[in-house]
Specification:
This is tRNA (Cytosine(34)-C(5))-methyltransferase. The protein is α+β, with helices and mostly antiparallel strands. The chain contains five helices and four strands, in the order αβααβββαα. The protein has one domain (about 15-110). Strands 1-2-3-4 form a four-stranded mixed β-sheet.
C-alpha cells in the first residue's frame, strides 16, 4: 500500500504541477470555479492535455518585480473539464488576497450591493 501511495505522489509531483502567475492566483481565490478561459494562456497551455483530477497550482515570485508578492504560493486544486477549483478555506483565501494587496472588504461590499 505504501508503495502505491509513493508512486501516486511522485506522479503528481512531476506531471500535475501547474505554474500560475499572480493574476491567476487572484482569479482562483476570488472565484469558486473559474472557467479556464479566465486564466492566463500559459495556464491553459499547461492543462489542455491533462486529464481531470487533482493538481498543484504553484506561483513563484519574480525578483525583478519587487512591488509584487514576493513569496511562493502553492495551492491544491482540481482540474475539471472546463474549470479549475482551488481548495483553499475562506479565511486563508482572504489572507492570501490581503497579502497581494487586494482590498477584500471593498470587493465584498460591491458583491453584497448586487
Amino acid at each position: 500500500m505504501a508503495d502505491r501511495f509513493d508512486f501516486s505522489a511522485l506522479r503528481l509531483k512531476h506531471k500535475r504541477i501547474v505554474t500560475i502567475n499572480l493574476g491567476d492566483v487572484k482569479v482562483l481565490l476570488t472565484e469558486e470555479n473559474p472557467f479556464l478561459h479566465k486564466l492566463s494562456n500559459e495556464v491553459y497551455g499547461q492543462v489542455k492535455e491533462m486529464a481531470m483530477g487533482s493538481i498543484v497550482l504553484k506561483y513563484e515570485p519574480d525578483p525583478k518585480q519587487p512591488e509584487t508578492l514576493q513569496c511562493s504560493v502553492v495551492l491544491c486544486g482540481w482540474l475539471g473539464k472546463t474549470s479549475i477549483r482551488a481548495f483553499v478555506p475562506k479565511n486563508e483565501r482572504l489572507h492570501y488576497l490581503r497579502m497581494m494587496g487586494v482590498e477584500v472588504f471593498k470587493a465584498k461590499r460591491k458583491e453584497g450591493a448586487r
